[in-house]
Write a structure and sequence with these properties.
- A hairpin with a 4-residue loop joins β3 and β4.
- This protein is α+β, with helices and mostly antiparallel strands.
- It has a two-stranded antiparallel sheet. It has a two-stranded antiparallel sheet with strand order 3-4.
- Helix content is 49%, strand content 15%.
- It starts with a strand and ends in a 5-residue tail after the last helix.
């Protein structure tokens, strides 16, 4: 199958070679329904391995490696929920987890703890402060399930 697209750079050709018989799949939907979701899943696996370090299973004990994988998986679920619920309609709505981690979570900040509250002071020159404020407001508006 060949898919042709045109944009400002001109024609782009994509070829998909498959062993699926044409009676099982409609050739016109092969690229969108089979090939693109597979590529997207490969990207999610790559995010899990590279951005959340799930490929670091270098401990000698099985239990230690399993715990590391669990931590990476919990981090993935939390980051995915943050992206879906708090970062929609922002510049990081479709960003990869590594980008969200670098731009939004790895910030230099001053933390002050008092009796009643925790104050986090971020620099006024922070490039993603509007996204951070939007995510914070959306987190505050999520229903409390406890």
């Amino acid at each position: 199958m060949c898919k042709l697209t045109y944009d400002a750079d001109g024609a782009k050709r994509r070829f998909v070679v498959t062993s699926l018989p044409s009676c099982q799949v409609i050739p016109s939907s092969l690229y969108a329904d089979y090939y693109c979701p597979r590529g997207d899943m490969e990207n999610r696996i790559k995010e899990h391995q590279l951005d959340l370090f799930s490929d670091r299973t270098s401990a000698h004990a099985f239990d230690s490696n399993q715990l590391r994988l669990w931590f990476s998986s919990v981090a993935y679920v939390l980051m995915q929920a943050l992206r879906q619920h708090c970062l929609n309609r922002t510049e990081l709505a479709t960003a990869q987890l590594g980008t969200i981690r670098t731009k939004l979570l790895k910030l230099g900040a001053q933390i002050r703890i008092s009796i009643r509250r925790v104050l986090i002071a971020i620099s006024s020159a922070c490039p993603c402060q509007t996204v951070f404020a939007t995510a914070y407001r959306k987190l505050q508006s999520l229903p409390n399930t406890s």
